[in-house]
C-alpha cells in the first residue's frame, strides 16, 4: 500500500509548491481510509480496555451514531426532513423487546424484523407526502413522532405503556468466547454500525447515490435527467427508517429496556443536532455526532450549565452551525485540507454546492427567463 | 341529535384555537415561504409570561395582551436574528432546521426560566353556559368563536384594506417589483413573524384553561393546527380559519363516535387529516395551485 506522501508526490509532480509535501485530495482519501481502519481497530479493542460502565457508554455511542447516520442519509444526502426518526428507533427497539421477550424470536431475527417494520411504517406515513415536492414529509413525520407514544399507551398490554417494557433474556455471547454480555453487546453493535456505514458509503458513491443527492440539489433538473424522483425519495426514506429501526434494535440489545420517554420529538431533533455537528453528508461524521450526543450532556454539566439548559445548548449549536458552518466537523476538516493542499473542491453541506443567486442564468429584473422557483 | 349538535359546537370552540394557531402558521408561510416548527413552543413561552403575570396578581386579560406584545417583539426579533441569515429563496431546509433548533432552545428555556411543573391559567371568559333545547353552549365556547371572528375581521381588514397589508402581499407575491417601488421586504418579514407569534400567544392563552400550562402543552395542538393549515391551504388566511374549525369538528366527532380512537388516539385524527388532504388535494381547499411547494 502506498503511503499518502508518495501518492501525492506522483499526482502533483512538476508543481513546485508547499502542497507537494502534503497529500492531495486523492491522497487525503487514502489517509481517510487508513484512519478509518485504525479507528475501527481501536474500537474493536475497547471491550478489553474499558471498565464495563465506560464500555456501556461507548455502546450507546454506537447506537446513537447509527441513528445519526439514518438522518445523514435522509436529510444530508437527500434533503428530506424527518421529525419522526425517534419513532422509527422506537419501532426497532419495541420489536426486539416484544418479539424476543414474548414470542421467543432470536435477537438477529427480531432486529431484522424491527428494521423492516420501521421501513414499512415509514413508507405508509411518508408516501402521500413524498409524491409531492418539498417539506410535506416534515409534517407527516412530525405527526408520526407525536402519535407513536399515544399508540404505545393505547396498547399497554403489549408495550408496557408509559412505564416501558423490559426484557429479561439477554443476547448471550457464543459459548467459549470468554466475553461477558456487555462486551458482546458492544461488539455486535460495532459490527452492525461498521457494516451500515460501509453500505451508506458505497451507496453514496454509486449511481443511485448520485441520484439521491441530485434530488436534494435540484429536483427539477434531476427529473429532467431521468431520475425517478418519487421512487428515489421513497426508497431513501424507507432505507433511512430501516437504519433508525436497526439503531433501535441495538438500543434494546444494549439496555434490554425501552420506554416511550426516550422517544419523543426532542430525541428526533437531537439526532439532527448530531448530524449537523458531524457534517450532514459525511458518513464518518455520524460517529462524531454519536460521540457528541453521548458525551455533550456531561460536558455542559462540567461547564456549569444546569442540565435543564442542555437542550438550549443543542438548539443554539444547531442554529449556529446552520448559519456559520453548514458542513459541520467534516466540513471543517475538508476546508482545512483544502487550505493545506490548495485544491479547491466544493465542501459538503446541505446547500454548499449551489451557485449564488447572482450567478444564475436568468435575469433578476423580470426581463428574460423567469426563475424556475420564486419565493411565495 | 342533541349529542351530535353538542359535539359540533364543542368542536367549533376547540377549532377556533386551531384556527388561530393555523393562522400564525399561514402568516409565517406567506412571509418566509416555509413553516415554523417552533410556532407552538414560542406560543407556549408567551403563555408562561401570561401565567407569570397572573401569578404576581395581574388580571387575566392584560396579562394575555402583554404576552401577545412580547410574542410580537420576540417573533420579529427571531426572524431578524436567526432566520434572516439562512433565508434562501431556493432552499427552505436550512430555515426549517433553524426552527427545529429554536424549538429545542425555547422549550428548554421555558422550563428553566419559569417552571417544569404544570400550572393553571384562568379562562378570560365567564363560567357557565347557555342552554338551547338540550344543548349546552358554554360562555367560553361563545367567547372563543367571538375571538376568532374578530381575528378574521382584523386579518381581512389589515390584508385587504390597509397600506401595510398591500405592502405585505406585494412583497410576498412579487418581491422584486415590491422592492423596486420602495417596499421594505425585511420589515414585512419581521412584521409577519411578529404577528404570527402574537397570534400564537393568544391561541396558547385561550387553550391553556383546558391543557394547563406546561412546556409540552402545545405539541398536540400544533399538529392539529398543521392539519388545519394543510386542509385550508398553507397560503390562505381564510383557509386557515375554515380549516381550523373543520378540524376541530372532525376531531370531536371522530373521538365521540369511533370508540377505538376516543380521546387517547385523537392525534391520529390530525395525522389522518393531513395524509388524506395530501393524497386527495395537496393544495388544500383554498390554497393556490403553487402552494403545494411547501
Shape, principal axes of CA atoms of chain B: globular
* End-to-end gap of chain B: 40 Å
What structural class results from the helix and strand content of chain B? mainly alpha
What is the number of beta strands of chain A?
2
Class from helix and strand fractions of chain A: mainly alpha
Looking at the chains present, what oligomeric state does this protein adopt? heterodimer
Describe the structure.
The complex is a heterodimer of chains A (376) and B (294). With 376 residues, chain A is mainly α. Chain A has a single domain, classed as Orthogonal Bundle (ABC transporter involved in vitamin B12 uptake, BtuC), CATH 1.10.3470. Chain A contains 15 helices and two strands. By secondary structure, chain B is mainly α. In chain B, a hairpin with a 2-residue loop joins β1 and β2. The longest helix of chain B has 31 residues, at 2-32. Chains A and B meet through α5, α6, α12 and α14 of A and α4, α7, α9 and α11 of B.
Main traits of this protein?
heterodimer, A: 376 residues, ABC transporter involved in vitamin B12 uptake, BtuC, two-stranded antiparallel ribbon, globular, B: 294 residues, two-stranded antiparallel sheet, 3% strand
Task: Outline the fold blueprint.
The complex is a heterodimer of chains A (376) and B (294).
Chain A: H1 4-11, H2 25-45, H3 52-77, H4 85-103, H5 107-130, H6 136-154, H7 156-159, E1 165-166, H8 181-205, H9 207-217, H10 219-224, H11 229-255, E2 257-258, H12 265-278, H13 285-302, H14 310-324, H15 328-341
Antiparallel strand pairs in A: 1-2
Chain B: H1 2-32, H2 39-55, H3 60-83, H4 93-113, E1 129-132, E2 135-138, H5 139-161, H6 163-173, H7 175-180, H8 185-211, H9 219-232, H10 237-257, H11 266-280
Antiparallel strand pairs in B: 1-2
Helix pairs in contact in B: 1-5, 1-8, 1-9, 1-10, 2-3, 2-4, 2-8, 3-8, 5-6, 6-8, 9-10, 9-11, 10-11
